[in-house]
């Protein structure tokens, strides 16, 4: 059976160690038959692995990987890769890694795959890997919104240059800050033996070996729950005297919120669609990452998987059965400039769960003051 090729997106701020990590990873034979797409201006710096420069910007690495540098559209490059595979011009690929530029917003890269019907047949999104520099990470997050977004969208955060950082306390503060920005992403150390294939790849929903979905690992909902209680605590703690200027410089972080939504009864498909469509159409840009598993009324035995980045949502997929005993709808969201209460109240309203002092869905839909049959627009 044909299986979509997993795609990992490697992002991280300028100089944060993406290429160094990639170089190390590509030495692992497990990663042979990988195509690396460098979405980059300037030179490709994985030079010591290069053996041959093939045509049209595709470079063959010594260990059988392919590498190409994208200067145009990523979608075209991926489509070209499919074409080369199908026409036998390149051998079968096991994996694609896209390394973004340090200043890139990962959202459009994810959307190139999720929102493209043809690419979706050939590729599946595995995960977003974000490198964070242990020495400069704090200042980078203070000063660059792109870096904050890269962390907020990650499935795995890889701390680099920890070998240069002597102060464990500083590292702990950085980790705490990353945890607040993204409670679900595992934090790993670039230099560690454990930060290899097994910890960085296959972080998507499906386990290709067992052909099962690991929803728990993918959603990490309990991390969001624990985090909700601690959300407003300043990550440095009350006695912190570090010289990174405290609250004033965490303003990029302040805009980011992460939380989970739960519901223990099946939801009609139309309600789910309306909720997602409304969020998407009114606040799409603010949805950095939305993942979820939903029990629907029409087919409660087969949960629906939701995965969205901003306005683009992956076409909803059905799992053949519930991966866990508890059949519960669970959505996790990382949003920017969107109040959590707004999303919660909207969800409650769509589900018909009345909230104190708020209009429930019935009140929104059947306004007692409305004149039947009368529409203000005529
Ligand atoms: N000591 C140490 N140096 C590192 C580590 N990771 C990266 N570096 C160094 O940091 C510099 C930048 O690393 P790169 O891997 O080029 O970073 P990058 O994110 O690919 O950089 P851009 O492509 O410019 O965004 C290089 O000089 C690396 O040798 C690390 O874990 N430890």
From TrEMBL:
Organism, as annotated: Daeguia caeni
Alphabetical list of PANTHER family matching this protein: COBW DOMAIN-CONTAINING PROTEIN, COBW-RELATED
Keyword Chaperone: yes
Coiled-coil stretches: none
Job of this protein: Zinc chaperone that directly transfers zinc cofactor to target proteins, thereby activating them. Zinc is transferred from the CXCC motif in the GTPase domain to the zinc binding site in target proteins in a process requiring GTP hydrolysis.
Annotated ranges, domain CobW C-terminal: 256-351
Name recorded for this polypeptide: CobW family GTP-binding protein
Keyword Endoplasmic reticulum applies: no
Catalytic activity entry: GTP + H2O = GDP + phosphate + H(+)
Pfam family, one: cobW
Domain of life: Bacteria
Family named by the database record: Belongs to the SIMIBI class G3E GTPase family. ZNG1 subfamily.
InterPro entries on file: CobW-likC_sf, CobW-like_C, CobW/HypB/UreG_nucleotide-bd, P-loop_NTPase, Zinc-reg_GTPase_activator
Record-linked SMART domains: CobW_C
Signal peptide: none
Keywords assigned by UniProt, alphabetized: Chaperone, Hydrolase, Nucleotide-binding
Gene3D superfamilies, per database record: CobW-like, C-terminal domain, P-loop containing nucleotide triphosphate hydrolases
SUPFAM superfamilies: Hypothetical protein YjiA, C-terminal domain, P-loop containing nucleoside triphosphate hydrolases
């Amino acid at each position: 059976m044909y299986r979509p090729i997993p795609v990992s997106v490697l992002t991280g701020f300028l100089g944060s160690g993406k290429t160094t990590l990639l170089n190390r990873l590509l030495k692992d034979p497990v990663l042979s038959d990988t195509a690396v797409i460098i979405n980059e201006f300037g030179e490709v710096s994985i030079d010591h692995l290069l053996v041959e420069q093939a045509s049209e910007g595709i470079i063959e690495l010594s260990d059988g990987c392919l590498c190409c540098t994208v200067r145009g559209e990523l979608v075209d490059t991926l489509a070209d890769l499919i074409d080369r595979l199908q026409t036998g011009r390149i051998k079968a690929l096991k994996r694609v890694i896209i390394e973004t530029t340090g200043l890139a917003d990962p959202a459009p890269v994810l959307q190139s795959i999720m929102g493209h019907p043809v690419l979706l047949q050939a590729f599946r999104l595995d995960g977003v890997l974000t490198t964070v520099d242990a020495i400069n990470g704090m200042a980078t997050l203070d000063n660059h919104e792109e870096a904050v977004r890269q962390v907020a969208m990650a499935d795995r955060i890889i701390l680099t240059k920890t070998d240069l950082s002597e102060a464990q306390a500083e590292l702990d503060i950085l980790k705490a800050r990353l945890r607040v920005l993204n409670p679900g992403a595992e934090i790993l150390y670039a230099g560690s033996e454990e930060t290899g294939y097994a910890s960085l790849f296959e972080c998507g929903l499906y386990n290709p070996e067992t052909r099962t979905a690991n929803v728990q690992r993918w959603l990490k909902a309990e991390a969001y729950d624990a985090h909700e209680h601690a959300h407003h605590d300043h990550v440095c703690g009350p006695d912190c005297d570090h010289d990174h200027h405290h609250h004033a410089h965490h303003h990029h972080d302040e805009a980011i919120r992460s939380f989970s939504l739960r519901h223990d009864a099946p939801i009609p498909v139309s309600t789910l669609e309306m909720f997602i469509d409304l969020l998407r159409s009114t606040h799409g840009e603010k949805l950095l990452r939305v993942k979820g598993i939903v029990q629907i009324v029409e087919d409660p035995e087969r949960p629906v998987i939701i995965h969205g980045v901003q306005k683009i949502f992956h076409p909803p997929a059905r799992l053949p059965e519930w991966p866990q005993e508890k059949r519960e709808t669970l959505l996790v969201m990382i949003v920017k400039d969107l109040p959590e209460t707004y999303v919660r109240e909207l969800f409650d309203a769509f589900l018909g769960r009345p909230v104190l002092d708020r209009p429930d869905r019935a009140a929104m839909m059947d306004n007692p003051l409305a004149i039947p049959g009368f529409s203000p627009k005529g």
